[in-house]
Predict the 3D structure of the following.
Amino acid sequence: MTMESSARIFNQAMPYMAMVFMRIGSAGMPIVAKYALNKGMSQHVLVVYRFAIATLVLAPFAIVFDRKVRPKMTLSVFVQIVLLGLLEPAIDQNLYYTGIKYTTATVATALCNVLPAFVFVLAWVCRLEKVNMRKMHCQAKILGTIGTVGGAMIMTLVNGPMLPLPWTKVNNQHQSTNIAATTKENPLKGVLMILIGCICWACFVILQTITLRSYPAELSLTTLICFVGAIEGAVVALVMEKGNASAWSIHWDSKLFAAVYSGIICSGVAYYIGAIVIQAKGPVFFAAFNPLTMVLVAIMSSFIFSEIMYLGRVIGAIVIVFGLYLVLWGKSKDQLSSAASSGEKMATTSRTAGASDQDLVVLDLGREAAADHESVEKNHQNQIP
């Protein structure tokens, strides 16, 4: 295998590996956030600290690495960045953290798996995703999106028999029951908040796809979104925590860890990877990996916390993986068809250019023949006495 072929395979696999690593980092966020919120941290203040830390971490890299590729800021791009900061950092994250107070981390993670369905519908409406029901790969994308959402619901709602894995303990069943019993009231309110936040998240992904076309500096765009989101989140926090100065206090504890972890991993790195993948593969490809977080949370909880694994979770994970495969297979066929169509357009353009060049040659020859004929006539007239 040559170096060129190895580099080509690596470049093709890079978006897939980036999304898997991104989902591994995001898998710990619900657990970390739920623990900090249960310790009394304000969800609105957590949003501000999260995106302020992300801005401080990303800004030096954006200044250095994007200084040659950063396009000029226009009014339309600025308005889009303000809307991006409002949709995801300000609205979605505040609704998500408020909703997770009324539910469990598992329920919050499962509800976020409706994102692929929302993104697919919005991308279809905005014509960012081509859908032809007669083609098999388009049908595969639709079935795969339904499969990923359905698999996440199976993992959440269906338990089935317990799997006697050697590293799990039966006593943890009572621990998980006690944790679920400590959930605060109004679970329906929490579910509605998280679902509304997912709609804002889907709108954020679509708008980010559109913004990257006119502002293709991913690192700078991510930094600006986090910066604007921190300002807008601070306005929300000042209103919601009015007269509660103690809500802003933070120490070397789980609250600081939640802010740093979510700011660096879940905002800075995740937003930057998301921008690169969306620009390369599209919004549906990005959203299709979201249910993978549910699978990773179940696996890590089984190994790290020795939580009991049920057959329903395994079946749901298999359905998610199968649905993800269908979506990725459909997207790969889309890229092949788009490459073929672009090749046909280039061939047509080259044929048209060749024909026009032939016409120009004929015109030039005609002009040269006419000029020679005129010169011969003038010489003949001069020779007549």
